[in-house]
Amino acid sequence: MEKEISYQLKRSRRAKRIRLTVHCDGRVVVTTPFGIEPSIVEKFFADKKDWVWKKVQFFKNVDRKVVRIFSDHTQFSWTNLIMVS
Length: 85
Prior knowledge:
By secondary structure, the chain is an alpha+beta fold. It has one domain (8-84). It has 1 helix and 6 strands. The strands form 2 sheets. It has a 4-stranded mixed sheet with strand order 1-3-2-6. A two-stranded antiparallel sheet has the order 4-5. The two termini are 29 Å apart. Residues 78-85 have low confidence and may be disordered.
């Protein structure tokens, strides 16, 4: 069975290389510099598809409980990003 993963493509003037981000809510974003051909982006994403699928599944199974409570009673939830640069 083919795994269908959609992603948002962002073009950035500040980007120097292709970046793939999987957010904890399941969103997948590919950020590229201007001038990168769509075929290169598609090949890059296809090469990383298994890794992306594992990370999306990981975030679906994460218990969204408080990870840390600091002495000033500030609470931080699981909202980290997984990034590849």
